[in-house]
Amino acid sequence: xxxxxxxxxxxxxxxxxxxxxxxxxxxxxxxxxxxxxxxxxxxxxxxxxxxxxxxxxxxxxxxxxxxxxxxxxxxxxxxxxxxxxxxxxxxxxxxxxxxxxxxxxxxxxxxxxxxxxxxxxxxxxxxxxxxxxxxxxxxxxxxxxxxxxxxxxxxxxxxxxxxxxxxxxxxxxxxxxxxxxxxxxxxxxxxxxxxxxxxxxxxxxxxxxxxxxxxxxxxxxxxxxxxxxxxxxxxxxxxxxxxxxxxxxxxxxxxxxxxxxxxxxxxxxxxxxxxxxxxxxxxxxxxxxxxxxxxxxxxxxxxxxxxxxxxxxxxxxxxxxxxxxxxxxxxxxxxxxxxxxxxxxxxxxxxxxxxxxxxxxxxxxxxxxxxxxxxxxxxxxxxxxxxxxxxxxxxxxxxxxxxxxxxxxxxxxxxxxxxxxxxxxxxxxxxxxxxxxxxxxxxxxxxxxxxxxxxxxxxxxxxxxxxxxxxxxxxxxxxxxxxxxxxxxxxxxxxxxxxxxxxxxxxxxxxxxxxxxxxxxxxxxxxxxxxxxxxxxxxxxxxxxxxxxxxxxxxxxxxxxxxxxxxxxxxxxxxxxxxxxxxxxxx
Length: 587
Fold this sequence. Notes:
Layout (H helix, E strand, L loop, with lengths): L2 E3 L8 E6 L3 H10 L5 E6 L5 H10 L4 E5 L3 E3 L3 H11 L5 E3 L2 E4 L13 H4 L5 E2 H11 L10 E4 H7 L13 H11 L2 E4 L5 E4 L10 H16 L3 H8 L13 E5 L3 H16 L3 E5 L6 E6 L9 E6 L14 H4 L7 E4 L2 H10 L11 E3 L27 E4 L8 H9 L5 E4 L13 H14 L6 E3 L6 H4 L5 E4 L4 H4 L7 E4 L3 E2 L6 E2 L8 E3 L4 H9 L8 H8 L6 H12 L25
Parallel strand pairs: 2-3, 2-4, 6-10, 7-11, 12-13, 12-14, 14-15, 15-16, 16-17, 18-19, 18-21, 19-20, 21-22, 22-25
Antiparallel strand pairs: 1-3, 4-9, 5-11, 6-9, 8-10, 23-24
């Protein structure tokens, strides 16, 4: 029976429905709820849903909201939702974005910050939202404790829900889905709902019940095919490893990406694979290896995703996987402990999880370069001084090279210039960068006896063997330099022209000294005196890079194993385990 609490005839009435909450959870919520006109009803078991439906159909209230176990609710949720209804007539659901917290009460991630990007400030159809979410294994709607509904809408929808035919563990999900399918919804601007997801949470417990419900009811409502269901279901069940032809296609978008993939291609060829490389990212293939920002892994029978850049997506760390999803790939490969920690912060989201998992197997360049690797292609240059400063920007723009040379040319150091043309040749829109590189060299070359130029196509890790310090803007070369224990300096007010207007460099890496352009000379003088020693490159190298000299072999062991070929299974030791539960379409 419901309790009448905080009744005020001047406010719309709200019914709080507690779904399988403990008495303590009910008391805690009620004691902090500030809304002035609500009553409470609770059920103790999913078996009680039919009785709950009957009660709601007979109750007299204006709005209904739901409360579930292991959630925390910010004060003001009811008032905010009711105001949204009153301001937007015709709205059937109002949803609060959901965040997650761990055993220590730390918010893991603001995982639903993309609400406003996905549906900014408008009413949307719940059916299309749910269809998109199911097909992409992306739960933008949270769970039913995120939602409030008008009682009139509930009374229209509840009779059509086949609640008796849905397995108990999935009934709150089914209730929510049917409310979504038939309604128009709006999101609140503020997150009021936090859910507990710890290592003890096993979101797979109800997987079988969910997919039975999906096949019997939801798929028909949403027009989802059996093939699409199988694709989704395979993400949550043990995979059957298929024996595939030993044919691998390596996808790349510029010469730098192709150079990165070359050691893996060579290792695959040694193992008897037929290897091809292509810039046609939509090509249908047997086994596809991808490392670009935009890919089509659904066109491969088996797909692997790698990073092409050690600071990829640094402007959104740790939310990288919210901008470049990995859930359509079979395997994800990361360089080492640092990136593994970033991934763990995102692993609660389905978009971060490849089908077979993520493995910290190293960065491919580490097979050829770094201390202990037998590199024979070190450039040979006779230089004037003992110490060398290497300038290697990501983008030559806004006269950066001129800044560098004019600030440092009078110091007793060699100035070594290594520009980058490889990343820009395949895109005509970036021809201006290549022109800037050529113009800067024409302006400076031959004017200073301590200034030296390398061919722009020289591999950076060849160049870094000649230097004692790297200066850049935001390039990942400052991370790659760790392979040789070389420190780096980032000039953070040098501009990056990948947008209009050009932005300042983004450098979130703690292994790099961050300075302003006016501090460049002073910083290099400090380095010459041996006083630039706050960062230990060796310490960071061990955290950022892993599996030195065995990266290609480890990745190929994983490909062998998951495509049905005999394999060394030591790579399994490098699988990254999640330290939190996972968000699914049913929790």
